[in-house]
Amino acid sequence: MIPIMKPKNCFSTTLLCIYLTLLLPTLISSQYCQRTCGNLHLKYPFGSGPGCGDPRFHPYVTCSQEKLTLTTHTGCYTITAIDYNIKVLYITDPSMSTCSCAQPSKGFGLDWNAPFSFDDNNIFALLDCSITSSPIYKPDGFYGGGNSTLVPLCDSEGASICSLLYSCRPISALNTPISTCCVYTPVDLGPSFEMDLQKLKCTSYSGFYSFNGQDSNPQSWEYGVALKYKFSFSNDYPGACADCERSNGVCGYTGDYNSFICNCPGDRLNTTGDCLYSPYWSHGLRLLPWKIGGVWLQIYSLALFLGWIS
Fold it and tell me: What CA–CA distance (Å, rounded) separates 27 from 301?
């Protein structure tokens, strides 16, 4: 004979299921998101792996073997610093020429759909460019006796920078005239943010984002590339993420729709609210903060009560 559940047991089981359904949807087992990568502190929108940070940034910024790396179609670049206040990250290009080393390069570019753009403080110097075939030089009409002149599409104030760079021994060893050096500003790179040295007929490039207080000493300049990042139209910090980080959590995402989650330390659980386990409901209702021990105490107490009324 098949046993028939008593009404009281049906009621108790239903009540417990409803309670757990309301209580536990915000607690989801998940991968642990790191708060650091090497010596760099990680905050939104960057993350240590899939499911961490903002999903729009994960394909481009990754943490592997404690090294934070930016990947574009032109290569992989080590991220040396992030300024979260002004929303700028700094990278190094191993193929870039500096006052310490001169070498050939194919250039640098950003993916057109990546959430990055060049910071205005960047200064790029194209080195060893062909005066006869580089598109950075163009015929500028005919004057008087029919002689055409070549006018470089370069920053008119960049001559002094080229002179200082060519005072560096590795760059001067290129044995090319300073006139083959062209200082580009980010706006000159066009909407695709592409610096293709093969198309520009240049051998190498140098880039820096700060004179470091020593304008006339190229050995002290901060070489590399500064990139602005943007995660929304207004770039306002997401409120849910701010709450998560204030509760010692790490912002992340999950599911087919990349829904927001807060990854919490210790128990390695995710929540749709913050690490005080304050769930957010679809209508904006927010429950009072619970400690995890209190959550299980409530479940245990409810189970005892249901067992008593059964």
Answer: 19
Q: 261-276 pLDDT, tens per residue?
A: 999 887 557 788 888 8
Candidate ranges 62-76, 131-145, 284-298; pick with highest mean pLDDT: 62-76
Please give the structure tokens belonging to residue 191: 């909407």
- Taking the CB of residue 101, how many other CB atoms lie within 10 A of it? 12
The single-letter code of the amino acid at 45 is: P
Residue 296 CA to chain centroid, in angstroms? Answer: 38
Q: Looking at the DSSP assignment, which residues form a beta bridge with residue 88? A: 83, 228
Residue 249 in contact with residue 265, Cβ under 8 Å? yes
Residues near 201 by beta carbon (within 8 Å), at least 6 away in sequence: 129, 130, 133, 134, 135
Please provide the size of the chain in residues.
Answer: 310
Q: What is the pTM of this model?
A: 0.75
The torsion angles phi and psi of 125, rounded to 5 degrees, stand at: -115, 115
Please compute, for residue 99, the number of CA atoms within 13 A of its CA located in the half-sphere on the CB side: 17
- The token pair at 188 is 């000159």
pLDDT value at 300 more than 90:
no
